Amino acid sequence: MSDPARRFARWPFARVVSVALHPFAVFVMLALVAAWRLDPASLPRTAAGIAAAVAIVWAFVLHRRHTGRWQTVDASRPHERPALYLLALAVAGGYWWWMGGRASSASAGVLAVVAMLCVAGLANRWIRLSLHMASLAFAGVALLGLWPAAGGVALALLPLLGWSRLRMGRHAVAEVLGGTMLGLACGAVPLVLR
């Protein structure tokens, strides 16, 4: 059994938390809530766009993992991440265009996610910021302006997610805290631009 597999077997609750609060799940929820709260007529278009975005990124991740290019589906090694960042940026740009570009009610939020990915990608040279933490922190702050109760729940889950990422050995404390700070800062952008 490999090291990551052993860690997952030893800490099943940490793995459940990490999977349940994976960036895919967090951004799907955020996109659907944003559509529902900002422009309910865009909900079907949002669902189709976010489903396509997740499918594209997930297919890429699974391909990398199954061909042995990545150690885990989380792109755990720093050299695995640049391709993930580039694909995520391309997919986010496609999603932004699909939703109507600047005319979309979610435009500022999508562009804030792009900014977050750019900063994380640039920082990857020195620190492997936790995208799990960044995504949940981003969603928590962004949701405060859309559905405060959901935003509060997301923010309250940050310590649990941080614990799971540390317990599973996926990140160091600085990477968890750095990802959280990046997500909080970028998540505030859509609120400020409203």
Cα separation of the termini? 50 Å
Mean pLDDT across the residues is 92
Taking the sheet with the most strands, its summary is: none
Q: What is the ordering of alpha helices and beta strands?
A: HHHHHHHHHH
Global Rg: 16 Å
Structure class: mainly alpha
Number of DSSP helical runs: 10
Note the beta-strand portion: under 5%
- Outline, from the CA principal axes? globular
Question: Ranges with pLDDT <50 over ≥5 residues?
Answer: none
Number of DSSP strand runs? 0
Helix content: over 70%
Describe this structure as you would to a colleague.
With 194 residues, the protein is mostly helical. It has ten helices and no strands. The longest helix is centred in the N-terminal third of the chain and has 24 residues, at 43-66. The radius of gyration is 16 Å and the shape is globular. The chain starts with a helix and ends with a helix.
